[in-house]
Prior knowledge:
globular, binds 4-methyl-5-hydroxyethylthiazole phosphate
Amino acid sequence: MSPSNQSHRGVYAITPDEADTARLIERVSVVLDAGITWLQYRNKSAAPALRRKQALRLLALCRGRGVPLIINDDWRLAADIDADGAHLGENDGDIMAAREAMGDVALIGASCYDSEERARRAVGLGASYVAFGAFFPSPTKPDARRASTGLLASAAELEVPRVAIGGITPDNARMLVDAGADLVAVISGIFDAHDPAAAVRAYRDCFAPVD
Ligand SMILES: Cc1ncc(COP(=O)(O)OP(=O)(O)O)c(N)n1
Ligand SMILES: Cc1ncsc1CCOP(=O)(O)O
Ligand SMILES: [Mg+2]
């Protein structure tokens, strides 16, 4: 099965800025082993050459584990290395151009912040999932716009996976899943955890039915 055909529910881990590529691979390996659904490569401080190198290393790692790799911000890099998808925010270019370059099965994600209207437009342009948030104060992005959980239910009619992001911890994730999130996107709650693998398992538990 190609990575893109797998389930669209669970933990969507996003990499922290990590300049040391060997360390990045080590940290991500542990997280992949714990069972995530998607991985996003996000590095806001690396120069283009390092981002390309890290993206290629992560792609090889993810291919070996059957986990789709989505590249943040840069659909051209994603298309160039044949990654599984790209994630685009409001300043990251054109969803239609990304879809055209990456083909029908690519995972093209759109940041929709607190706007259902933006999500509807993104799906119309070819987005395969929509992301809302920040739902809680984010240690990684303290100035992120905030969103309310009601959006997760109303966006169900768009019939694409709904991703929640922003300050999500194992303690508040179930509330978002109950509100309609298909995936929880997490940076610090996983990568800053004392035990990242245990953190992934704790997020996964939030998707299990309560006894
Ligand atoms: C899954 C997911 N959702 C939202 C974002 C944020 O994208 P953006 O607004 O472009 O901000 P940066 O991540 O580029 O700082 C995301 N990356 N992933
Ligand atoms: C990229 C982004 N967009 C909104 S919040 C956020 C950062 C999420 O990181 P964390 O899980 O550490 O809050
Ligand atoms: Mg962006």
